[in-house]
Amino acid sequence: MGLFSKKNSVSVQTVRRLPQYLRVLYDRHAYGRLLVSSTELAEETQVPSIVIKKDLQAVGAPSKMRAGFKVKGTISAIETFLGWDNLNKAFLVGAGHLGAALLGFSGFKNHGLEIVAAFDTHPERVGEEINGIHVYHTAQLKSVIEEKKLQIAILTVPVSAAQGITDTLVACGIKAIWNFAPVKLNVPPGVAVQQEDIASGLAQLCATLKSG
Amino acid sequence: MGLFSKKNSVSVQTVRRLPQYLRVLYDRHAYGRLLVSSTELAEETQVPSIVIKKDLQAVGAPSKMRAGFKVKGTISAIETFLGWDNLNKAFLVGAGHLGAALLGFSGFKNHGLEIVAAFDTHPERVGEEINGIHVYHTAQLKSVIEEKKLQIAILTVPVSAAQGITDTLVACGIKAIWNFAPVKLNVPPGVAVQQEDIASGLAQLCATLKSG
DNA sequence: ATTATATGGATATAAAAATATCTACATTCC
DNA sequence: GGAATGTAGATATTTTTATATCCATATAAT
Fold first, then answer.
1. A17 to chain B: closest CA residue
2. Are strands A129-130 and A192-195 parallel, antiparallel or unpaired?
């Protein structure tokens, strides 16, 4: 029960739902609303209101009795919790189809992420600019990471290249990897890997189809 | 306990892990292996072996005492469970960055999915072929769906268009929608919607970063 | 003032999922 | 042949997550 044992135990599922709330909150804030109730958020997100209440309480969102959660304060609470209140410098490795799609998505700045560089090995891609982001050769990873003080890696390379690139990233001191390659990466402790597997969602849809 | 009350209760998390196992199994099968143990699958996927055992038991994977799970039979069990043993005809609405990336991904055929048509409203996209898939105008949705007997919709349109397109899809009798637009869709009972929210994964990564 | 109502907050319960423990059994190795 | 080993299978436990119930309270209607 010491000073450092306070486990900030916000569940994974709660964390995954936060961006949904954020979107509705941004919208309400744009309309000048000061308060929003969990009931209203529930209608908008199709998440049960009781889950929303618990989620928002977990991140310390401010509320007003009988009125709802304070829009601005709740936005701040969520953004602070996720570290989205200031931008992390990110880069992307693998400027293929998916990589280009992510580079073309301008919404990351609302999610605390600023993609400032891309890397690839294909000669026809290196030197290009995609949505204003320069594509370097993968050989320059180390120098560019250090020069630009990059923090978060987005991995959209083929499976065969994923682990090799990862080893390089780890050697460069990268502590967060967002991995879209369908393979589990081997990293030392202290490096966070978030695995995105598009097949998981498809599997869920197919299973629902068969049973429903 | 009647004939129809048998609830095939395979958990969501189990379903989401199945594709991972499938990848390793394909690999081992390609190398001619007949058996694979849960321990080996655990090393490969970083999922605890006991979870793997339970998952595979849940879908009725065949095994051999003291030896492991039968590679071929387990592949069949998973594919059958997910309905990936024969191809579902799918189509994509919204051939923008992300849409094009999905159209360019040829791996869906291993996941029971064959994308046979795309739709968009932009004049410069309509009429194009992306990875051999024709892009129709969205106005033709109904006729093409009926003509080609399409079953699964992949939605990669902007948020503003998502619900409108969904209403059309529902009217066309579509029963499964894989939605990449970050908005909850309103659909009648009986229509399965699988929501993909890229921000959820990013939130998870950021939360890990902050706490780790 | 009084009452009705909708809300966040707190607590309790239930359901889902992960993890641990033990057993039986083939295979391999002496 | 006998013991050690590594496996699936079954069961039990714990942890996590979701859901339900009740309560105090601030607002609005009467």
1. B200
2. unpaired
